[in-house]
Structure prediction request, 428 residues.
Amino acid sequence: MAWQSPISPGVSWYQDSLGERPQYAAMDGSRTVDVAIIGGGFTGLQAAFNLAKAGVSVALVEGYRFGDGASGRNGGQFGTGQRAWPDEMEKEVGFERSKALFDIAENAKHYVLDFARDHGIDMEFLPGQLNVLHKKSYERTYRQSVEAMRSRYGYGHVSFMEKAETAERLGSDHYHFGVRDTGTGHIHPLKLIAGLAKAAKAAGAQIFEMTPARSINQSGGKTMIETPSGSITAARVLIATNAHIGNLEPVTAAHVMPIRSFIGATVPLDRFPTIIPGKEAVADSRFVVRYFRKTPDNRLLFGGREAYTADSPRDISKHIRKQIAEIYPALQDIEMTHAWGGSVGITLTRQPFVREVMPGVMSIGGFSGHGVMLSNYCGKLYADMVVSRDKALEQFSSLDVPSFPGGTALRAPLLFLALSWYALRDRF
Prediction:
């Protein structure tokens, strides 16, 4: 049986299609390095790779297996820009800042594609994304966003789709309009994680699986990470745990909250050639986004059910199939071969949380479902900051990302109420 993470329900299609996932030893004994990293997802492994490549001694610990969190189990969609449309960001931070953040996201996109190519990682990139409108009243806003991206942000890969084109490219008339983006695409995230871990180790990074960080302590200008099998002492520390911060560090825990998200994979849709014939990724306009795409072997990967507690539903596939049938009635009885879930780290503003939470300790996470590109690139930018004092990461660290209200006791219940309200707005 394929490895099933104790923190994430269900064996993913990614795991089974990858085959044997490379394993790395747990840490044994204590060590002193220049930089210690907690978390073996995209952010942590990219930071470890780039630091080691520059000659910085680095040790990374992951509590489970590399890719057991959101980095290896997500929807695989790149997207374009930040979580919000750039003209929406502009209302909050002004054009100059919004353009800088948009450009960083474009750099992130090219960085991930170049990294995979340079290291021979077949992450199964397929081009194209469709953003579709579940409410007709959103038409004007989306038209304006497309025009802004083309005219003021210099991004000519987007076009507005009328009802007929949306239905043709989607293979369904469930949505009213859409936006087509030919400058992005989607990937097999676990294959990228596997290749990234290999590259980090080859560069000289010390990387360890099944080694949870138990505490972070500081003394004499140094930081010590305690694990069950030893400690890591370092001048700098990167916390890259995202949704899995737990009680390790309170500032991050107050700003990055976990929600459960679930994905299902169908049998190959060879009998349904009109469903997403161009194999683009799709994301809709709901607050609780429904996101889906075709794989190279013609399966439909569909995500969209969220839960705002630590518990997971007993039958993930039942709920996913119901959502699929709303868009594609012909698939109401389609066989689901896989159904899995995991925790996504979100922030109150849906913008990344990048902050020094203790002297010399940086925390990066909270990509809010838009992290395939940005989490990789933020790991790289962190390494650039350490090695050459590059300031690009400050574009994120200076964002105003407030903590969730309610304190330790009420934070989770208030989040549940708020997100449930938005889910109701999606329906009515």
User: Anything to note?
Assistant: The mean pLDDT is 93.
